[in-house]
Amino acid sequence: MRPARALIDLQALRHNYQLAREVSGAKALAVIKADAYGHGAVHCAQALEAEADGFAVACIEEALELRAAGIQAPVLLLEGFFEADELPLIVEHGFWCVVHSLWQLDAIERANLAQPIQVWLKLDTGMHRVGLHPTDYKIAYQRLQASANVAKIVLMSHFARADELDCTRSEEQLAVFQAARADLSAEISLRNSPSILGWPAVPSDWVRPGLMLYGSTPFEEAQAQASRLQPVMTLESKVISVRELPAGEPVGYGAKFITSKPMRIGVVAMGYADGYPRQAPTGTPVLVAGQRSQLLGRVSMDMLCIDLTDIPQAGLGSSVELWGKNILASEVADKADTIPYQIFCNLKRAPRLYSGS
Ligand SMILES: *Cc1c(COP(=O)(O)O)cnc(C)c1O
């Protein structure tokens, strides 16, 4: 059997969820959209359901997958419905629904729903992606309140630059939010992972941790709360071939690495078809036989090469950690000029094995 696999530590997932709650002092919706950032939405939801205040996903397709697996906790649709004909299913399954645009508000008012739904009314405080304009917000709230199709309303927004700890943009966005909701009395939800970890003064009734649940830091620099996270995913494989090369020999596609001295090279069963980033350059860290080493040359579809020159105990069959508790996904992401979010979401082919349920 091919040795590439992703080990998922559900105990670490629960630890990180509790950390989100502890740091924020708020209720927390575990964000498990995009198949829990590659970690497996159903497994993650099952592992968290006993303690979670609820879950959040991107769309009704993802929410229905949770219900089909028997998850009964509240599930928020982060972009609400894409078409009004989703509304009866939203009622049937008790999903909570973001309203980010006036057309959604119109559709809710026009619908004839068997029961009222819970709405999270999203304000655009400056990210300028989705959310109502501040001048429309209060009127939208009042229209929702007046609609027989609406039960509870939660007020929400989203920060664009909370991962930049010395940037004042989050405070500006908060000020826009506070002005728009000044005379509305409802629960509020503003914070995703970077704002949970890095912006303790932002008020919250509900937080929405995503990346941090999976134990990865959203920050480029070291940060005290982020250092308490436990990585959930370990992507690992084994050395399947070893070669000794003299100086001056090319390694892999395009001869992107040329040996500078006699070198021992290990070939690992892991490639971009598993989601390992092809953009990762020579020098990207790996752990082999318990020692840090580095990637050499181009990542190919099913294999990549690593340096074994100074690790005599490593050889055929040695375990390799591509990321996990020793090599952080954020380090690999940084080398590959991307973010840990994308590293996780790209995971495929390598089977996931769960522990700590
Ligand atoms: C994805 C998402 C989150 C989670 O963000 P993280 O940075 O992964 O914590 C929170 N809120 C909304 C609206 C989202 O779309």
Automatic annotation (TrEMBL):
> Which EC class does it fall in?
isomerase
Q: Which residues are in the Alanine racemase C-terminal domain?
A: 232-355
- Belongs to which family? Belongs to the alanine racemase family.
Which residues make up the binding site for substrate? 129, 301
EC annotation from Swiss-Prot or TrEMBL = 5.1.1.1
User: What is this protein identified as?
Assistant: Alanine racemase
Source organism of the structure: Pseudomonas taetrolens
Q: Which reaction does it catalyse?
A: L-alanine = D-alanine
Q: Which Pfam families match?
A: Ala_racemase_C, Ala_racemase_N
Q: Does the keyword Heme apply?
A: no
Molecular function as annotated in GO: alanine racemase activity; pyridoxal phosphate binding
Give UniProt keywords alphabetically. Answer: Isomerase, Pyridoxal phosphate
Q: Name one GO biological process term.
A: D-alanine biosynthetic process
Pathway listed: Amino-acid biosynthesis; D-alanine biosynthesis; D-alanine from L-alanine: step 1/1
The cofactors named for this UniProt entry are: pyridoxal 5'-phosphate
Cited function: Catalyzes the interconversion of L-alanine and D-alanine. May also act on other amino acids.
